[in-house]
Specification:
The protein is an all-alpha fold. It is 59% helix and 0% strand. The protein is built from four helices and no strands. α1 (3-13) crosses α3 (34-42) and α2 crosses α3. The radius of gyration is 10 Å and the shape is globular.
């Protein structure tokens, strides 16, 4: 995943990292913390294939969106 893609979609949704984490946890039942989002955005960590699939479904984008 390119680090700017998650940040791009988050910004487009109008969320801070904390707000996105809360949205994913409460509305989509994904246990992804603000810190994890920060690491994904900075390229320090990358989601597993299972997490990437769940994240793309929750954000309503294709998995390919993150690899462009």
């Amino acid at each position: 995943m390119k680090n700017l893609r998650l940040k791009y979609i988050r910004s487009k949704m109008g969320f801070t990292q904390k707000e996105l984490a809360n949205y994913l946890q409460e509305a989509k039942h994904l246990k992804i913390s603000r810190g994890t989002i920060a690491k994904y955005e900075s390229g320090v960590n990358f989601p597993s294939k299972i997490t990437l699939k769940a994240l793309s479904k929750a954000l309503e984008v294709s998995e390919d969106f993150f690899s462009r």
